[in-house]
Amino acid sequence: MVVFTGLFLSSCKENNGPETPEYEYYISNQYKSEVSAQIIKFKLLGAQTQFPEIAAFSAKATNDIVVHKVTYRTSLQDKSIKASGLVYLPKTAGNYPVMSFQNGTNTLNSDAPSESPNSENWFMLESLASMGFIVVVPDYIGFGESANLNHPYLHAESTTQSILDMLRAVNELTAEDKVEAKPTKDLFIFGYSQGGWATMQLQREIEKKHSEEFDLVASSCAAGPYSIGFMSDFIIKSTEYPMPYFLGYLLNSYHSLKLYPNPLSDLFQEPYASKIPTLYNGTNEGGTINAALTKKMADLLTPEFRTGFDTDTKFSVLKSAFIANSVVPWNISTPTRLYHGSADELIPVSLSNKMFQDLKTAGTLDSKLELKIIPGADHSNGVFPVGISTIEWFMSLKK
What we know:
Layout: E1 15-16, E2 26-35, H1 37-48, E3 65-76, E4 79-90, E5 94-102, H2 123-130, E6 134-138, H3 156-174, E7 181-192, H4 194-209, E8 215-222, H5 228-236, H6 244-256, H7 272-279, H8 286-292, H9 297-300, H10 303-308, H11 316-324, E9 336-341, H12 349-361, E10 369-374, H13 383-397
Parallel strand pairs: 5-6, 5-7, 7-8, 8-9, 9-10
Antiparallel strand pairs: 1-2, 2-3, 3-4, 4-6
Helix pairs in contact: 1-2, 3-4
């Protein structure tokens, strides 16, 4: 998310809630902060000087909000684990739709939502809660309560399971009498970059298997690596790639999950092959990892991987993992927007164009799907225009 320097003014104190084993998913919550509607409006007003589009909805921020860290049960490769995330609750009693936000690629545990609840990164999520949504922000496995585990980066099954289980945990938390904000079954979902991929995977899982449990109202998927194979091929065949830590993250994740049992030295040249498992430990930010790698793909990757991935049987298991964790196009039933910056240098806009066409080929109607290209936007500066447009759209659909 975009940083709004100097705009986050809320206070923070912690208060551990007791564990509640009677619930299937929810374990406990930890009070993080409260923010008044007045403060949120003040921050929105300040942000309007840079982003005047905010004026279209800033007056709708009328609820004070409270922020909690939620710890809950989920699973990773059939093993029960604890995970966590943030929930933003309006303080005004009432029934509210839920919005689940899936954040982009992160390698630093201290930047996980539940570890940085007062970060300016989440300012627009505060605002949306003040406008009348219960906002849920999963940490993803490997962060927060599950920081002892390797993050299963771009692993579809565990990603969707952990998000669904957090939504269920929030439903159990809000069933308590002391919580005055109650969720309806209406669900809005939104994510950018890794979060765009996660959002589309989540949408497919809900539409295919959980449509009676959740009423999906709208889905906003932005700049996501929907096809892992397409994205990996783009990086592998580039002369230079500015964010090599993306590929290292993916391949290290699949190796740790046993989706690729061969040694990393089949993929990476030294000294990088030996370094990579030590880099993704939750203490290094992306820039630090990039500095430990190289942008030159001919130096980072083995010649066999670069030239033989499509034909060498040595890589067939990895190729299968890419296919298994890519979004499978389907005939979607939820109003959906695909967003992408036209100048995205990290995840090419052609990937969203391909996803759009594949969804249409699968039978998706024009009335259910839009592709919205942000002119001139790269991967970083596309975040805010997408966020503004998504909030305006969600507010227009909110009952």
